[in-house]
Write a structure and sequence with these properties.
protein dimerization activity, SinR/SinI_dimer_dom_sf, Helix-turn-helix domain-containing protein, TransReg_Diox_bact_type, 2 domains, DNA-binding, mainly alpha, 67% helix, 7 helices, 434 Repressor (Amino-terminal Domain), 0% strand, 108 residues
Length: 108
């Protein structure tokens, strides 16, 4: 839930709830109710203010990431995929390589 994520990011940055509320220009009581999941649907304006102070994107704050969900592609992965495409590797060839690699890993 978004409240838990805000609280986690805030504590990671060693900020008090008062400090975050003040820097973001939001009511401390409202922020507290969000963090405790009493209020569960904050406005986009609230989320934008909080995300800016916490130094994360709005998407990162609102996204409900599952434990085993893969990370988003970073710049290096994007370059690798682009390079493979430019070199003529087809999707099918890439899938075959992945299947072979899984098979090889399972044999060890």
């Amino acid at each position: 839930m978004i409240g838990e994520k805000i609280k986690s990011l805030r504590t990671d940055k060693k900020m008090s709830i008062s400090e975050l509320a003040e820097k973001a220009g939001v009511a401390k009581s409202y922020l507290s109710s969000i963090e405790r999941n009493i209020q569960i649907n904050p406005s986009i304006q609230f989320i934008e203010k909080i995300s800016k102070v916490l130094g994360v994107s709005v998407n990162e704050l609102i996204r409900d990431k599952k434990k085993n969900e893969p990370e988003e592609l970073d710049e290096e992965w994007l370059k690798i995929v682009q390079e493979a495409m430019e070199s003529g590797v087809t999707k099918e060839q890439f899938k075959e390589y992945l299947e072979f690699n899984k098979w090889r890993s399972n044999r060890r």
